[in-house]
Amino acid sequence: MEKELPYALAMADGRPLCLAGIWDSRADPDNLPGTEPKTFAVVTCAPNDLVATIHDRMPVILHERDYARWLGEELDPADLTVPYPSELMKIWPVITRVNNVRHQEADLLDPIEPEEPGLL
């Protein structure tokens, strides 16, 4: 079975990106008070043209102008859950070791040529 090649994605200008997420904590009678388990998920949307070349969905990436709105009191900022503009992003293939949390090497996100032998 052939492994799928992982890809990294970033802002084309190198600036950090902010992913939209949701979280919750739940009271559990089996846990000590103050130790409620917390859950977190990254919100996804349809892919933009760039990400569509590798996947059928992508994380919601927030524009800096929308950070406060996403984190604020608004009950339904659903209009922010749209694909980020392709022209502001870049993607590149990376080594499959990135898929294992035991690997922490600095070169995990270095670009590779997909056909390089021994990298899969």
What are the defining features of this structure?
single chain, 120 residues, mainly beta, hypothetical protein yedk fold, two-stranded antiparallel sheet, 8 strands, 4% helix
| H/E topology pattern | EEEEEEEHE
CATH architecture descriptor text? Alpha-Beta Complex
The CATH topology assignment is hypothetical protein yedk fold
Q: Please indicate the percent range of residues in DSSP E strands (runs of 2 or more).
A: 15-25%
Rounded to an integer in angstroms, the radius of gyration calculated over CA atoms is: 18 Å
Structure overview:
By secondary structure, this protein is mostly beta strands. The protein has a single domain, classed as Alpha-Beta Complex (hypothetical protein yedk fold). The chain is 4% helix and 23% strand. It contains 1 helix and 8 strands. It has one helix spanning 67-71, and strands spanning 7-11, 18-19, 21-25, 38-42, 44-45, 58-59, 61-62, 89-93. The strands form 4 sheets. It has a two-stranded antiparallel sheet with strand order 1-8. The radius of gyration is 18 Å and the shape is globular. It starts with 6 loop residues before the first strand and ends in a 27-residue tail after the last strand. 8% of the residues are buried.
SSE map:
Blueprint: E1 7-11, E2 18-19, E3 21-25, E4 38-42, E5 44-45, E6 58-59, E7 61-62, H1 67-71, E8 89-93
Antiparallel strand pairs: 1-8, 2-7, 3-4, 5-6
